[in-house]
Write a structure and sequence with these properties.
The complex is a heterodimer of chains A (319) and B (254). Chain A is an alpha/beta fold and 319 residues long. Helices cover 40% and strands 28% of the residues of chain A. Classes of the chains: A alpha/beta (319), B mainly alpha (254).
Chain lengths: 319, 254
């Protein structure tokens, strides 16, 4: 199996802090890999290392078989990068921006024009292609930036938090664009803070924290590890909090979390829909009044909590 | 090479398509020129010469320094907005972006210098030497401008953000004013003269002046044109020799 990215034991220090602290990531060709983690986990540092923008202090990093430290030039010929900022030139049109990057990739004039036309169409920017990029909305700029990373037809696309700061509609548009690329066979490495984003786009998720991988697997595998879904409910009356908790504890095996200030109770459950029904029935039987109740996917906090709990438990068993 | 041209074009388009920027810069430059020509100029006496003939080479050469702040800010903005990261991830030479910035900004400052020359002639500036010497003076200023651009590009890279680059740009003020650009060095206190005489801008200004003042030049400046040109050239080479490797190293490292 050919690997698009092989990272082993990456370390990057900034002064005393370790942005990467022994990070291992491997991505097979034909995959979308999402690196998921909170701010400061080392996501951007990792993407910058893959993009040849910084040198790691230790570890091995190969991109499409090329060693990043030994042959950065070869790596640059196979990657396309879209960073956290929309790095497009506002004083040039969308088309000019893409043609410029295509030429810099080494395409001749005619090939650059062809590639730009194809990318504009792919991203739904044809209509606005000849307007200056400074007249674009934030979402359009991001799409143009994504286009700039695509015009060189890279084998590996690097997307650093591609949808951070976008409104929901632009986010969905960008997701659609990335999903199309994935379906057309481009390898993608993306970083994100959003579980739903990783879930929607990636075939492989690497969860990182403090510069190292804490969990790796397909979205389904990770969800299985942390329990299927979460029941979240708000009670009307403070006094009911304890009673709700005891009802939930009696019926479920997941840890029950109580947040007093917001009168919120959450519990992880394996088979969401059935357990939501039984929970409602037991609460009803106990005569507890609810503000609302919902069934949802675990959010990133809960994923982390579950995974770090699991790590701590594993450590305890080993000891 | 073609990559450099492509990136240069982008830097130029940014100026051309922001006409407010050009209008403001031209207006400001013209205003200061007229202030020196008609307000301060009356109080400054140069032996055997109208002040405007003394002023013009100095004013144009200091324009190089002031427009350099813009180059530092533009470089820092490119860094801040991720544009440099994008280019660094592309298979192009490590000095491409920097060279492109230096070329584009040199072209802009040459254009600004040409406009100043036009205004200068309109308000009484005259060449005392040949037209060819005048052109040579102009070419020299443009060439020194290119050398100085490397200093400003380096500054922009190390500053990292536009405000810091603007702040670092303040360093041009002592060079612009403690020089022979606006007033003869001999009128300054002795300790200032030491700096004023030997700093690069003075040599640059006097090299241009020696070529535009014709027969007056040697009497006024004390040396023939060659003296100033070689010293200015040494400074220019030294500036490039220090800034360029620093800039490229910084660019590589990110």
């Amino acid at each position: 199996m050919t690997m698009s990215i092989e990272a082993q034991g990456l370390v990057k220090r900034y002064g005393k802090t370790r942005a990467l602290d022994g990070l291992d990531v491997s991505a097979e060709c034909g995959q979308v890999v999402a690196v998921l983690g909170p701010n400061g986990a080392g996501k951007t540092t990792f993407v910058r290392a893959v993009a040849t923008l910084l040198r790691v202090d230790a570890g091995i990093l190969r991109v499409a078989g090329h060693d990043v430290a030994a042959d950065p030039g070869a790596v640059r010929r196979v990657i396309g990068l879209a960073g956290q900022f929309a790095a497009v030139e506002p004083a040039m049109t969308g088309r000019e921006n893409l043609e410029m990057v295509a030429r810099l990739f080494g395409l001749d004039r005619a090939a650059a024009r062809r590639s730009t036309g194809a990318v504009l169409e792919q991203l739904g920017l044809e209509q606005d292609a000849d307007r200056l990029a400074r007249t674009y909305s934030g979402g359009m700029r991001r799409r143009l930036d994504l286009g700039a990373s695509l015009v060189g037809s890279p084998r590996l696309l690097l997307l650093d938090e591609p949808t951070t700061g976008l409104d929901p509609r632009s986010r969905i548009e960008l997701w659609r664009a990335i999903a199309n690329l994935r379906d057309a066979g481009t390898d993608v490495l993306l970083t994100t803070q959003y579980l739903d984003e990783a879930d929607r786009l990636a075939s492989q998720i690497v969860i990182i924290d403090h510069g190292r991988a804490v969990a790796t697997g397909s979205p389904a595998e990770l969800k299985a590890r942390i329990g299927g879904s979460v029941i979240e409910l708000h009670v009307r009356d403070d006094h009911d909090l304890a009673r709700v908790a005891s009802v939930l504890r009696a019926a479920k095996d997941g840890a029950v979390q109580i947040e007093e200030p917001t009168r919120r109770v959450t519990v992880r459950v394996d088979s969401g829909r059935e357990q939501l029904g039984s929970t409602l029935r037991s609460l009803d039987a106990a005569g507890i009044e609810l503000e609302d109740i919902s069934l949802r996917q675990p959010n990133l906090d809960e994923v982390f909590l579950a995974l770090t709990d699991a790590t701590a438990a594993a450590g305890a068993t080993a000891a | 090479m073609s990559a450099t041209l492509i990136v240069t074009r982008r830097a130029l388009l940014r100026y051309v398509r922001t006409p407010q920027l050009i209008a403001m810069a031209t207006l400001q430059m013209t205003m200061f020129f007229l202030i020196y020509r008609y307000l301060f100029g009356g109080a400054i006496h140069i032996a055997g010469l109208p002040y405007v003939d003394y002023l013009v080479p100095g004013f144009i050469a200091t324009g190089v320094l002031f427009s350099g702040i813009g180059a530092a800010v533009a470089t820092a903005e490119d860094l801040q907005q991720g544009f440099i990261d994008r280019l660094r991830s592309l298979p192009i030479g490590r000095s491409t972006v920097l060279t492109a910035r230096a070329i584009a900004d040199t072209l802009i400052l040459t254009l600004a210098a040409a406009v100043t020359v036009g205004i200068a002639f309109a308000v009484g500036f005259r060449l005392h030497g040949s037209a060819l010497d005048g052109l040579a003076a102009f070419g020299l200023v443009a060439a020194f401008g290119f050398a100085f651009e490397w200093l400003f590009v380096t500054m922009g890279l190390f500053a990292g953000n536009a405000q810091a680059a603007q702040g670092m740009g303040m360093i041009v003020f002592p060079f612009a004013f403690i020089s022979s650009a606006y007033i003869p060095v001999a009128t300054m206190p002795g300790w200032l003269q030491v700096f004023a005489k030997h700093q690069p801008l003075t040599y640059m200004v006097d090299a241009a002046r020696a070529l535009t003042l014709g027969p007056h030049a040697e009497a006024l400046l004390g040396h023939p044109a060659g003296y100033f040109v070689t010293r200015a050239a040494i400074w220019a080479l030294a500036i490039v020799a220090v800034s360029l490797p620093l800039a490229v190293a910084k660019y590589r490292r990110g």
